[in-house]
Amino acid sequence: MRPYHHRHRILFLFLIALLLLHPFASSLSLAETEAKDIVNKCILRVSCNREQRQYLTTRSLHQWWDGDVDGVLTVTLPKGKKAQGVMLAFYEAVPELIIEGLDGDTPAEIARYQQPYHNQFIPFEKAVNAFQIRCVGEIPLKISRVNVLTEGLLPAWVQSWQPPEENAELLLIATHPDDEVLWFGGLLPLYAGELQRRVAIAFVHTCARLDSRNELLDALWHCGVRSYPYIPDQPYTSDYLGYVTSCVRKAKPQVVVTQDINGEYGHLAHRLTVAAVISAVAEGGAADPAMYPESAAAFGLWQPQKLYIHLWPENQSTFDWMQRLPALGNKSAYRIAVEAFKKHMSQQSGRHEVSLSGLYDCRKLGLYFSLVGPDDTAHPDLLQHIEPLE
Q1: Do residues 51 and 144 share a domain?
Q2: Domain count of the chain?
């Protein structure tokens, strides 16, 4: 056989193999395709306040479409495209939603949303080319952002929150949105994102601007947090001790971490938060049945094993936030924290930054209280001497 005939024969057999494998290859390719957000290619119609429709697709979270209780948002995808679900960011209280597919002759329910999470991906029972969103009940429909996801694997940025952690290994208690990364750096990226430990986060205030809450959720998700944070119903908490005690009892953490006892730069709300945490944890308030008996009855009593305080000088450890995190794109824990801080777009005044040095070094945490030994400084690990939870 001549050489070129041999080459043609090999090529012919190769083409036959490709044809035989084509169905499998096509399905494999479809399964591995990443879903796309195509909201900017969709046609969005609103039944009221049409001048606000543009706010549904902007990056700004302090603007929203107000659909009240009777409004309807209709989304039509380009021809040949289908949505597997939608991610919504709500501006105020979260309403109960019904989502109906419009591919047939009559609207057919494909999803119902009843959770209290302000940013959330809502999967559909079946993929559709067009759908409408409306609320039921008395809570108005106010949406700051819409993302329409095509069929395929969901990208990492799509938020699908799990309930707040109620059996936590670690509870971080911060005063305001952005404090969770400014003063603790790579803590959340490492323990929640990379190590996937049971991490709960509680905030004492959410600030008057409601968009700060949505920015906060973007930042936490970027850090690898998947359990929804504890957030007070009102922007400002008046009873610090009562709220913190309730959070400790609900989250049932082994270890608690909180801010500088002097409020970092002297912030009064920070100082009040830390005083409440010390009372609830180190002084045993959350384990005392006489302390806020209503939350004791609702959630039970609880005594954490350790308490760390930012910048506390005794038994102080310097944590390594420069280690690479394969689960988060092989970036350092510090880099993830810096990126997460930028998600707090309303807080980008330039006054503060995530710092690995100076007065507010986010690596420095002191062991203020421990029931399992004070020798954590040799090998800095917030969960040292804590038995892993099953």
Answers
A1: yes
A2: 2
- 28 pLDDT exceeds 50? no
pLDDT, tens digit (0-9, with 9 covering 90-100), for 141-196: 999 999 999 999 999 999 999 999 999 999 999 999 999 999 999 999 999 999 99
Domain membership flag for residue 33: no
The answer on pLDDT for 131 being more than 80 is yes
Asked if 383 contacts 305 with a C-beta cutoff of 8 angstroms, the reply is no
Last residue of a domain, one of 122, 150, 178: 150
Q: For the chain, first and last CA: distance in Å?
A: 67
Residue 294's domain is classified under what CATH number? Answer: 3.40.50.10320
Range of the domain at 286: 170-370
Q: Residues, the chain, total?
A: 390
At residue 331 the predicted structure's pLDDT band, cuts being 50, 70 and 90, is: very high
